[in-house]
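Q: Got a minute? One more chain.
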Amino acid sequence: MFDRAIYNINYKRLMLQHVPTELRKPKLLALITALLSPVVHVYAIFNNYKLEVEYRLKLTPQVCSMQWHLNNLYDYDQRRIYIEDAPRLDTMILRQEVEGREVVLPLEGEEEAEGIMYLEEESLAMTDDFIVVMPLELQGNINELQLRARIDAVKLPTKKYTIRYE
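A: Always. Here it is, folded:
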């Protein structure tokens, strides 16, 4: 992304270019190298930060990008982490508080409601948008809070998910 030559600085070559030829003695070059060492250190920190930002900019909320990111972090060799859609409710439930009963409404285009009537607790449990499927070998070997933080950084804010180990 930022492969421009402006970010590639060779400080040793730059030092040699700016010191006149007749003044290029070992002691003077050692002194200039010592004076430049903090700048070289800060430049290395900047380069690492630039690479990290470029990596983060490649990440998107798309499934393929999230799978690529999670596999790079947690399962680089076998790449067994994948993302699947969560199950959806087939019917719409209308709860009548006054009468204490539930009515199943047909979805658009249906004559009669078919399918399962879910209790309120069950329907709330099925509100996830996707499931991150992790290999069973990774359970207990990774920090789940860190995993959730990495997923939260990439996913859309309105999406909900669960982590399942298989």
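A: The beta strands are 82-85, 92-96, 101-105, 130-134, 161-165.
Q: Perfect, thanks.
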